[in-house]
Amino acid sequence: MTAIHQTITLEHVDITSPSFRANPFPTFRRWRDTRPVVPVRAFGERAWIITRYDDVLAALTDERLVKDRRNAQDPNKKQRGMWTPGFVKPLQRNMIDSDAPDHTRLRSLVHQAFMPRLISQMQTRIHRLAHELIDRVEAKGEMDLVDNFALPIPLVVISEMLGVAEPDRAAFHRWSNVMVNVTKPSNGILAIPSLYQFVRFLRRLFREHRLNPQDDLTSALLQAESEGSQLSEDELIGMVALLLSAGHETTVNLIGNGVLALLTHPAELDRLRTEPELMKSAVEELVRYTPPVLFATTRYAREDIVIAGTCIPKGESVLAALGSANHDESKFENPETLILDRQNNKHLGFGLGMHYCLGAPLARLESSIAFQVLFERLPNIRLAVNPENLRWNSNLITRGAKAIPVKF
């Protein structure tokens, strides 16, 4: 394909800034209206943000946009890149950053281990856990919704599914935070000690499970076979790291963002309380309205690609803006309005195609139980601060408030 000559002017918007994360939707709308494929600076280089629903939908399944950067680069040219220690490399190679046939093999293996049985078994556990968390804070009359409720539910669930003992869970969460916040070289250098501890912990976890298999996800991954293939230990490290971060960081934001949206829309919260049958559609609407994942994980142009009249050069980074697509007025009527019984809600909050979120059923289950228990147990729950004063994380992919103080 012949490249289109174009003048490229970067948008000077810091998409990792707390102010942008707090309310990116006006910026997304401006881009959809005026510049639907917009170049910004991210990861210390140029990246292209795709903003319109139809373009995002197409990008998520476009084989010209690959997940493994090496598949978009000229093999005869020496590629620049930040040096990383050898022990970190397994964390950089996982299912979410691979293309077929590697992705097909890895997803097949983990799909066998991530059985519906394991998820359905967690329903009673999630209910009990949500009640236990409320029990701990009920007499105080206040809590940080994130630290005291939204975080412990998915963290305990994924830790128990992976067979991580309770004393190790705080460190497990800390390491996960470090991983998802490596968005520039300086973060990566500062993260090295934590990543070393994490990899060392995982190798020990695997040794213990090989010697004494359990009825958990780690043992299932160790034993999973697909056409005679098993996960190597490095692949296991990448897989468990992915399950850890994707398995709880996103759901923390879904619960936190969802409760925040409901507390600031009391009429919709009242509807949910009086019409509990709305819960299923409410979860889908909250994923759309206040997305826990703002951008799909990075893709790379395998060749020069023209999208919405803009040429994305070969090898460059592409960010499909799920949060923008889910507010596209050409697909959603009154997209800036929270409508818990919204019909035809074909949001892209969990992605699409072969990289569709493997943990979506678990996230839906955890959040629906969390909302149900929270609003039943704490009928007078309310925000303890002005929503405009909340601080938002700066992680590129996910979107959530760092803390949400509430009173009841």
From TrEMBL:
Coiled coil: none
Entry-linked SUPFAM superfamilies: Cytochrome P450
Molecular function (Gene Ontology), one example: iron ion binding
Keywords, in A-Z order: Heme, Iron, Metal-binding, Monooxygenase, Oxidoreductase
Gene3D superfamilies the UniProt entry points to: Cytochrome P450
Record carries keyword Heme: yes
Matches recorded under Pfam families: p450 (PF00067)
Similarity field: Belongs to the cytochrome P450 family.
Database matches in PANTHER family: CYTOCHROME P450 YJIB-RELATED (PTHR46696:SF1), P450, PUTATIVE (EUROFUNG)-RELATED (PTHR46696)
UniProt protein name: Cytochrome P450
Annotated organism of origin: Allocoleopsis franciscana PCC 7113
